[in-house]
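Here is a tokenized protein:
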Amino acid sequence: MSSRQLAAIMFTDMVGYTALMGKDSAKALELVRISKEIQKPLVEKHQGQWLKEMGDGALAKFGTALDAVNCAVEIQEVARAKFDGKLRIGIHSGDITIENNDVYGDGVNIASRLESITDPGGIYISESIEKAIRGQTDVQAKYLGEIKLKNVAYGVRTYAVQGVGLPIPKVNEGKELSGHFWAEVLRRGVIRAAVSYLVVAVLLVLLWGQVQDWGVDLPQWSFTLLLTVLGIGIPLALYLAWNYEKSPEGFVKTTSSQSWQNPLKASQRKPLTSSFIIVGLVLVITIMYLYPRFFSGDRSQQLAESSLEPAVLNKSIAVLPFKDDSPDSDNQYFADGMMDEILNHLQKITELGVKSRTAVEPYRNSDLGFATKARELDVAFVLEGAVRKYGNRFRVTTQLIEVESGNHLWAETYDGIFSDTIFVVQANIAKKIASSLRAVITPDEEEKIDRIPTADIAAYDLYVRARHERILYWKTFDKKHLKTSHDLLDNAIQIDPEYLMAIAAKGETFMAEQNYDSALVYAERVLVVDPEFNRGYGLKGECYFFMGNFDLAIENYLKAIDLPPKDNEWLWYHAALGRAYVSQNQAIMAFPYLQKALEMADEFDLQAVNLVIVRAYTSIGDFEKAEAYSKKVIKNHCFGVWRKTELVLIQGKFQEALQFADSTCQVVDCERECSRVLFRASLLLGEFEQAELYFNQWRNSGQDFYIFEFQLNYELGYVYHQLGRTEEAEKIFTEQIEKLESELDRGGIRPYLQPYLDLARIYAFTGVKNKALNYLSKSVEQGFIEGWHDFILIDPFFKSLRDDPEFKAIVKQAQEEKAALRAQVREMEERGELNL
């Protein structure tokens, strides 16, 4: 029986074994025995598996490249101390096949060939191993070149492991190395030293000219002397870089053992050649070169002419969904990602009024012309774009259109390789738009626009794919999209553990699953990476809100609105604060934040804000204003359909609610919400058989949101009871009582849930009067929301208690509290503090 697997293969061999066998076979065998006694325990220590022995050689496999290299280093260290001989070790990662206790495959062949050319006491590894250990501070390897190995059809890029006691590789013709010279150039830092020298030379030349501009009259021969000295210095600098480097012991020759065992980084081995210094000097050169030109007469003339151009008064813009023009059809995620990043950059510019993605999303695949879209969005400019991705290349085509005239202010095409240059393209498009609209970008805003979100483009690609999957989930409620999103984000975070947006997106994906504990972990992780990133606090606020801890939710929302970036999420946190205060029965605190959200209407999707406002007015019993705002929610907004119907039901207009839901649900795709409201309307109208049908439709429509689960389930018990199915009804009531009381034991009251009220309804209907009144009293203490202080008088569950004095007193108390709140709101409106 055979098995195939990918593994790191280590091949070891004893130097001079064959010759020693001819001279002293007993000593040779003894050395083999000692060698195996050294190696076997170390292989096991490093999670390896001893596969095979071949005379003086041995073969082992490891699950990771790092384990294999660490094991090899320790074997050589122990062998130098305890072994009267030397070992050679070769390591390669590749496919192997294990069959009948034997091992075959590419991994074995290359590892054995690498071992055969390794220097005595040394360790050679292939490029696949070196890539896997790259970045490890305690293990380093240097590139030797590409080696043509015996019976291997292709060249193998080979590295030698560095370390104390490990030999300096001896490169000879027998190793058939190609590219070794270039590898040595890189190892000795010659290129870095040459670049540093040339940058300093250019800086000195520019300084000579600058000194002349300052009025210091230097003779011409001084410039000739400067160029001569700099010219002579080039070969000298290259010679010193090739032959010497800095180490903890001082300067040493690059061919010495001190160099091979040098623990300093490459940038530290050549003084004054760090990337930071080079970039700094280049920046100084750039400023020195551009400064006089920027303030030249020509530039002044350009500024004078531009000041005569009329200012753009209306700087409102919508970025329409980008089209995917790629040869294959699976790159819409890339087009959406490009659109989102440009949109995010524009939202950072204070002078621009930018429509949110939610606002423009309905126009995806729309046949309407850009003028109609712009008129409906109420913007003066629109940006249209298309993306084409093929292989590792991309093309972005954009055009900025002035709506009133229909003129294309500009059209640009950007081509590039899929790398971090894509971030530059996104930033440049945003800046060009701002320039065309004559919007001032502050230095702080420009710094935020230019900031690269991750240094690894692969992590960015995974993040954008994951965000696209989460959007697909909210469209379909198919949980496979959340699973895919999690997998993609896990890989992105593994590549870049400090990628803020990927970490936040991981938490948001857990939020979509209603896994708030896990979402909270990632919210905290966002703030560890950047304590000033508001999305971390916003995500914490969302977690605590849906966990029912409204105090902590409010605390974190308040922190979120005090921090940048002030993007679409920042705007939502104002509405979320209002929502949390309403859930906490503090509608008076909610209204100022809801008004702030409305004031930012040009930049915000008002549907979500209006829904919260409807809930706020409903909770204080101002049904007239609640209905006014419910009409502002577009009909095809599913939660808007639910909120509007519930509002009408609470006022006792059961037939009107049924008619509205029935007519609306015939033209919108909101099966979950429609089934729910049709069920409740039918129940309250006494149409119990129809109510059961709607309940089954709701249950089969997809994900069951906990905000509906408790109430609908025990209301189904009421339906069963009215249909004469009393045993089924009693079973449901018993189950729901246990769940609701468990919910109370959990601590906190999750939003949209009123467990005290729900328990009071069940006990009232089942005739347990004392418990019903007890829970109803606690519900008043908690604070009725959603208009229940009025609906309770017509709720069929409380029919048996309507004439009870204690019941009447409880209801009266609740209604008086709401009347007082309405009076407070009116006073705020009269004083001009509230203008909703």
Summary: Confidence is low (pLDDT under 50) at residues 292-310. The chain has 37 helices and 17 strands. Residues 805-830 form the longest helix (26 residues). The radius of gyration is 37 Å.
